[in-house]
Amino acid sequence: MIDSKRNAAARALDAQPGAAQPGAAQADAADAAQADLRDPSRSRSEIVTLLLIVLIGVLPFIVSVSADPDLWWQIRSGELILDQGSVPQADTWSFNTEGEQWTNHEWLSGVVFAKAYEWGGSVGLLLVRNVLFVAMVGGLVVAYASRIRQPLVVLLLTLVTVPILGVFINVRAHSFTYVFVVWSIVALDRARRGHHGWLYLLPIISGLWANLHGGFALGLGLIGLSLFLMLLGWDAMTARPTGRDQLRIIWVGLATLATTLINPFGPWLYVYVFEELGAE
Questions:
Q1: Dihedral pair phi/psi, residue 20, rounded to 5°
Q2: What local confidence, expressed as pLDDT, does residue 238 receive?
Q3: Which of 20, 61, 139, 190 could form an SS bridge with 198, CB 3.0 to 4.6 Å?
């Protein structure tokens, strides 16, 4: 008798207008959020906003840039590679080390700078620098916007950060390292938030990085540690992956390591870089 009364009361409550099942509000909110994300107009407006923030952030710093003393050397090495059609393996420039092994870990940067100088002189070099600068700032803005929904706050953070980082981005090979560090962090952060497709960007980054600057060793440490924590579920933002997600992380980690070996020096590039890191 008591059970029948309870059942009747429950049915009456369900029939009331506005009554909701437990968890219905959360489900409705989640559906609304998904619908909001699928709204093309909202996505377009966010993209435009982020692009404007990037533009405002970089404009004061793209008019001119000072050249480093070794820029001539990087351009000349790039010209040598283009003329020969291959990357030199032995030193032909030095008087006392002629013929010894030359591991030019920045060879692709030299090629980029040489072609830019051939096409546009100093303006071409400035254009390369500005592309790298915009790429770095764009990555920062994406990282900020993924955590902060207020465009004004993102803009303020960008305006504070850019003058500091702008000092380090010039016409040198290490500028590629700054760009790749930022975008590696962006890809890892997006993957931690459930967008696992971003992980596939990491092998591409590492392959280019290993040919543009020796700072790729830093990237391997950053990426390797992050993937290891994600795989074990020690990441505070993600649950421990299972099955397919585990395989994805392992595959990306192996691919990221493998693409660094696609360079003119093969595994010897690692020997050179770690010897230089340990040099006094």
A1: -130, 145
A2: 63
A3: 190
Tokens of 241: 């992956």
Residue 171 one-letter amino acid:
V
DSSP H helical ranges for 173-243: 174-192, 201-212, 216-232
Residue finishing a domain among 142, 170, 198: 170
CB 173 within 8 A of CB 129: no
The amino acid occupying position 61 is F
Confidence bin at 9 (pLDDT 50/70/90):
very low
Chain centroid to Cα 23, Å, comes to 37
CA-CA-CA-CA torsion for 129, 135, 137, 139, nearest 10 degrees? -160
- 58 and 144 part of one domain: yes
Q: pTM score > 0.90 for this model?
A: no
Comparing 35 with 175, the larger pLDDT belongs to: 175
Whether the CB-CB separation of 274 and 217 falls below 8 Å is answered with yes
